[in-house]
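Data deposition worksheet. Section B asks for the primary sequence of the deposited chain exactly as it was used as input, without tags or linkers unless they were present during the calculation. Section C holds the resulting structure in token form. Section D is free text for depositor observations; keep each observation to a single sentence. Incomplete worksheets are returned to the depositor.
Section A, Depositor: J.P.
Section B:
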Amino acid sequence: MNAKGIIVDKESGDILSRATIFVSDSDGNPVENSNKVTADDEGVFEIEVMPADYITISYVGYESKVVAIKEFSSDLKEIGLRYISAKDGNTGYFKERDNETDGSLSNKPISMWVWVAIGIVGFYIYKKYKK
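Section C:
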């Protein structure tokens, strides 16, 4: 079975060209690395799937979306992706977890002040050893 769709911005309806689409499980984990396609310049894609499969659509700066193939019909299905903005508390570069009670590390952005301190120390070292 072929699943056909078009990828758009959920809010504006703008076409998202070159999105990545791959066969996945219901959690969005890839099940077949060879079954991956890229949408064309008009945001349209077509991928070979089984009726019980899921596909995951990803696009830089947007929240990935998992869609069940059973939601597709013979028509072109419009799939809207949500833009990830800074006001959501996530810039899209890091995935933060709320409860870190198991002692595991999480990826959190480095504070701007840390970068400033690194820059000042680096400049000082550069000036000192430039001679």
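Section D:
The helical segments are 112-129.
The domain at 2-85 is CATH 2.60.40.1120 (Immunoglobulin-like).
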